[in-house]
Write a structure and sequence with these properties.
By secondary structure, the chain is mainly alpha-helical. The chain has helices spanning 2-18, 24-56, 61-83, 90-120, 123-139, 148-174. The chain binds fe (ii) ion (FE2) (2 copies).
Length: 177
């Protein structure tokens, strides 16, 4: 689900890069699609993926927190782009910075976090998470929620304590204790 989102956004970036400098309306349309897609994608990752990772994956808090900060930066850029006229000279520059930031973020997510997730989660858990992500996407906001990020992911730390014993049980059963 998440990788498909990543590919879709990359397609939009490529279309934006290929569009002529003077195709203002086309570039505006693509930028608006990027804003909607990334707002939804970041919302479901923050609500479901990142808390899940903090709960179940040991020693990855730092990477998750870094990802959260990148989301905040990306959403701030989305807000700026939404408010920038497509004829403004800053429009292209802001889209270029966004593209670079998202490509970097996606690369790290797919090469580190998703790999960990596959290693730790059972097949049933991955399917369940995938379904939850798909369902959450239907109601996810199409505009960037800049302030929501930190609160949502921080809330998972308290939750992590309560599920801690479940993780211990799981590990114990895995190693046959
Ligand atoms: Fe992300
Ligand atoms: Fe992502």
């Amino acid at each position: 689900v998440l990788k498909a989102d990543h590919r879709d956004v990359e397609q939009l970036f490529k279309r934006f890069e290929r569009a002529s400098e003077n195709a203002h309306e086309e570039r505006r349309r693509i930028a608006d699609q990027v804003i909607a897609a990334l707002s939804q994608h970041s919302a479901i990752e923050e609500r479901l993926l990142y808390p899940w990772m903090r709960d179940y994956i040991e020693n990855r808090d730092e990477e998750v927190l870094e990802a959260v900060e990148e989301h905040r930066m990306v959403k701030w850029l989305l807000t700026e782009i939404a408010a920038t006229d497509e004829r403004d000279e800053a429009f292209s520059a802001r889209m270029a910075v966004l593209t670079e930031a998202v490509r970097h973020h996606v690369k790290e997510e797919e090469s580190e976090l998703f790999v960990d997730l596959r290693n730790v989660a059972t097949r049933a858990e991955l399917l369940e998470l995938g379904e939850a992500l798909t369902a959450a996407k239907r109601n996810a906001p199409k505009t960037p929620d800049v302030d929501g990020t930190i609160a949502r992911v921080a809330a998972s730390v308290g939750h992590a304590r309560t599920v801690g014993h479940e993780v211990v049980d799981r590990v114990e059963s895995l190693v046959g204790m």
